[in-house]
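Quick one, tokens below. Sequence please?
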């Protein structure tokens, strides 16, 4: 006799678990990898994501634009503006000082959001916070959920951050003479930047783990150091390269409406690997003098180029941190700062774009053979994914450390050398660097191209969904969150 249970329907699948992600306020370069991490989670794993977005009081339209077409399983929550406090750091402070302060002022709203998720029956199974938001770890502890750091920049810099508490305990002389090359802002123990950096580093040690937007093929030495040389370091998970993708998939691309951008049509008519792409990121600006020297250098080198122009500003650090601040926008037309006759003289081999170009579409184009970059980590990852050799031109903050890594560690770039007296990269020098990278017979360019091809292959391997080390690391981590910490 057939059992009565034979006709029972299978039990319903458990509802997806929810993971909370916390990027920093206003820093679009960090929001992008958080969005990509969220996409990987919801498209490849049985979970939903709540993206908690702090508000520093500036316009939220840039963030909303990035989130226009995300998968429905990602729920963005925009926090109210954080209350202003006395003695806030200046707006041109280093990120280590400015961003943690902004996040700390949002702690009550973050706590309220996690409480609301619990009340709605979708409690967070884990909280993943930006490298500038580790003080939110304490809020995760209040709710009894694991807390992780998402380190969206280089593993090399995470390694330095893990060393800092130990260095701090040493004698002052040892600190100053350490073989580890510290950024200028961290050499003075009495500076606010150093104190904030030390606080951040100590807080990282309290995390349950650290996700890093990088991969072994790019930074193998740094990951080995993190695994072997830092006994107090939480488990480290390489989950990169996470670069901007199409809105509903994980294929590298930019926004869906980028296909019609006029610069792409121009690239279609250029020979393979003949174009030098020049872009200093969404917030990178040059001084007026440097802007003109760059223009003359591009004219002198006689190579094809695609240049994304931004209106010159004298304070590059302040401009970089205020890319989403309407009051900080400069309304001048950047074309007006070009040398007289520049466009006419270069029209047969150059193309200029005001303010913005679809960078991933450009870097993935077969006509592009080199990339002048400000050494922002997102740009480095994008260039690595597509195997594009680089000219390293750092502007501020951690970009100088990244430039050293690109030239000496990765061997994937030539670094420009500013004049020691005025800090300007002069036209003659820049023209010569371009020729070294782009000339077909140039030895430096040939070696760099070979190296970047190797990096491109390594990047594709680690993101393979079935066998890639980065994909598997994220898969194991998400599985841990949604199974070990049940509702």
């Amino acid at each position: 006799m057939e059992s009565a249970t034979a006709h029972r329907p299978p039990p319903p699948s458990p509802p997806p678990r929810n993971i909370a992600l916390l990027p920093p306020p206003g820093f679009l370069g960090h929001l992008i990898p958080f969005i990509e991490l969220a996409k990987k989670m919801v498209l490849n794993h049985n979970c939903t994501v709540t993206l908690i977005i702090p508000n520093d009081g500036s316009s939220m339209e840039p963030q909303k634009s990035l989130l226009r077409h995300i998968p429905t399983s990602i729920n963005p929550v925009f926090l109210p503006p954080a209350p202003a406090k006395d003695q806030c750091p200046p707006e041109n402070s280093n990120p280590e000082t400015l961003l943690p302060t902004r996040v700390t002022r949002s702690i009550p709203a973050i706590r309220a959001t996690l409480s609301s998720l619990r009340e709605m029956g979708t409690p967070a199974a884990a909280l993943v916070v930006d490298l500038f938001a580790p003080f939110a770890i304490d809020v995760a502890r209040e709710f009894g959920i694991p807390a992780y750091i998402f380190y969206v920049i280089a593993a090399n810099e995470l390694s330095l951050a893990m060393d800092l508490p130990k260095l701090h305990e040493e004698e002052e002389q040892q600190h100053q003479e350490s073989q580890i090359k510290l950024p200028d802002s961290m050499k003075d123990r009495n500076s606010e930047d150093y104190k904030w950096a030390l606080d951040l580093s100590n807080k990282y040690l309290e995390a349950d783990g650290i996700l890093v937007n990088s991969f072994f093929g790019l930074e193998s030495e740094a990951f080995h150091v993190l695994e072997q040389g830092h006994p107090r370091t939480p488990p480290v998970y390489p989950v990169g390269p996470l670069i901007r993708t199409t809105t509903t998939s994980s294929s590298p691309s930019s926004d869906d409406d980028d296909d019609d951008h006029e610069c792409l049509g121009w690239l279609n008519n250029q020979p393979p690997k003949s174009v030098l792409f020049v872009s200093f990121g969404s917030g990178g600006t040059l001084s007026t003098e440097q802007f003109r020297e760059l223009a003359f250098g591009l004219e002198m080198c006689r190579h094809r180029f695609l240049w994304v122009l931004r209106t010159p500003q004298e304070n590059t650090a302040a401009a970089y941190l205020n890319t989403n601040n309407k009051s900080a926008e400069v309304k001048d037309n950047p074309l007006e700062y070009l040398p007289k006759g520049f466009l006419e003289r270069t029209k047969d081999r150059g193309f200029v774009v005001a303010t913005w170009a679809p960078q991933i579409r450009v870097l993935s184009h077969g006509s592009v053979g080199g990339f002048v970059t400000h050494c922002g980590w997102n740009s480095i990852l994008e260039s690595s994914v597509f195997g594009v050799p680089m000219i390293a031109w750092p502007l501020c903050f951690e970009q100088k450390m990244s430039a050293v890594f690109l030239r000496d560690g990765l061997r994937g770039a030539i670094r420009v050398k500013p004049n020691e007296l005025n800090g300007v990269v002069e036209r003659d020098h820049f023209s010569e660097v371009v020729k070294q990278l782009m000339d077909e017979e140039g030895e430096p360019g040939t070696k760099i191209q070979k190296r970047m091809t190797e990096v491109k292959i390594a990047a594709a391997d680690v993101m393979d969904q079935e066998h890639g080390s980065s994909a598997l690391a994220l898969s194991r981590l998400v599985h841990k969150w949604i199974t070990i910490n049940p509702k």
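The chain has two domains: 17-240+463-484, 258-461. Confidence is low (pLDDT under 50) at residues 324-330.
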